[in-house]
Amino acid sequence: MSSNTYELHNLSKIVLKYILILSVIFVGIAILPAHASTEFTPFQNISNSPNDSVNPFVVTDGKNIFITWSEFSNANHSADIHFSKSTDGGITFSTPKNISNQHGSSIAPFIHVDESTIFITWTYRYQDDHYSEIYFSKSTDGGITFSDPQKISDATFSYSSRLVTDDKNIFVTWSDITFSNERHYENMEVFFSKSTDGGVTFSSPMNLSNNKEFSSYSSIVTVGKDIFITWTDSTTTGSWIVFSKSTDGGITFSAPQKISNENGFSDAQSIITDGKTVFTAWNYRLKMESQYDIIFSKSKGMVNSTENNSEKISDDYIDSKIQSDIANKPEPENKIELTPLKSLKWIDENDANYSVNGLGVFRLDNSELNVNKELIDIPVVHVWSDTDPKGIMVDVIETGADTGVFYADISLVTEPSSHLSLQVSNGDSVTVSFDDNQTFKLTDTVKIASKNLSPLKQIEFGISPDEITCKEGLELLIKTDHRHHPICVTPDTKSKMIQRGLAMTIQTAN
């Protein structure tokens, strides 16, 4: 074969290959749908009731769709748990079934399906008082019939239940509120109970959190015999995500372990597993800031019972903003030396080290700055660096009326200083000074009085729940949603929310 013939032969093979490739591409394009966007079917009214139907929860077993919700009666504002299912992929749904049939309000249902068994838990609030319990029911025939409601909890105000199963057992976790004799909001704890006989009986509730913080809104997953539970612990100055696990099927649990940053507010966590690794995510915001970020964390290594059970949930946050905000281990060449004056303390795990493009948080303990005993004081301090000796003036906010303790955050940046951002360079010293004998003017310095703050801000600034004040004509409630936030509402709204189990009362000092 001549060289020209050989080259022509190779060229024809190359051309033929590209023709085949292009043919496959065009055929693939031809069979693609006209619109790549996902489309949804028309709306369906599943409850189809003249009453209010709220708080739906939906799951699937891969073939069927199961939905549960709370349905309120317009007559007496009570509610029941209703259930419906679809066996044709959501084209049609069964007639709603009332599975609670209780005299009070049954709200906030949670549904879980395990093969052919459907499990539902909910919060039952007794009529005309503020006590509530966690109830349970199951169906072993695909939702045709359900067992009689069974009480699991045994406390004062139980809510927010979550349930998982393994091959033989049922595990339930929830939160509970306790009160003092004066009906003050005293404490919140996370509880756990299990059933080893398919839900016929449940173990005595176990207090997993057992601390002085407010513990609430737990999430739960299982891997083999291991049980993993997360929840939120909160105080008046911050909140964080806590983790505990059991390696003996729920007989004992490990000591609660903090897995989120304490320098701010973390809440609304969720937890899942793929059978090998535990994944968790939550909301997070820095103190005195309104912007939330989503933080993710996962377990290190395998978590099932055949692997190393001593591995803990990681605190290496996968979030660039948080990594730059909180620099626990700054490199020496990127170090800012913070100079305390008088009763100043820099707040950090290293007590004195922050990084460029990080966040500096400081605390002042000075009773002389507490000039208004019944209001939250906000004096001004001077903060400067070697790079910017002029510095910035920063408002420090008292943690509560008459505490004499003040906090402030500043951002350490390489750009020119502005507002709460201070220009620094590697190796700078950052200094804060203030005048003990400042002459305060009420209108200039005390910019915020507690009575003008929202209930949530009052708690953030250190005011206890019992001391929250509302504007004239409004009354205080604590919502029973996942955040459990205090709110000020009109008397009419207060009555409706309590009747529907959406909030509870709290005695306040006005």
Question: Would you mind describing this structure in some detail?
Answer:
The chain has 510 residues and is mainly beta. The protein folds into three domains: 53-324, Neuraminidase; 327-445, no CATH class; 450-505, no CATH class. The chain contains five helices and 32 strands. The protein has helices at residues 3-31, 320-325, 442-445, 455-460, 491-499; strands at residues 53-60, 65-72, 79-86, 97-98, 105-114, 117-125, 132-139, 150-151, 157-165, 170-179, 185-195, 206-207, 214-223, 226-234, 239-246, 257-258, 265-273, 278-285, 293-298, 335-339, 344-346, 353-355, 359-365, 380-385, 392-395, 397-398, 405-413, 421-423, 429-433, 475-479, 486-489, 503-505. The chain has a five-stranded mixed sheet, with no helix packed on it. The longest helix has 29 residues, at 3-31. Mean pLDDT is 74; it is low at 1-35, 304-344, 348-352 and 437-452.
Average predicted confidence as pLDDT? 74
Q: Which spans have pLDDT < 50 for at least 5 consecutive residues? A: 1-35, 304-344, 348-352, 437-452
Task: Tell me the total number of β-strands.
Answer: 32
Q: Count of DSSP helices? A: 5
N-end to C-end Cα span: 104 Å
Question: What is the total domain count?
Answer: 3
Task: Spell out the key features of this protein.
Neuraminidase; 510 residues; disordered N terminus; five-stranded mixed sheet; 5 helices; mainly beta; 11% helix
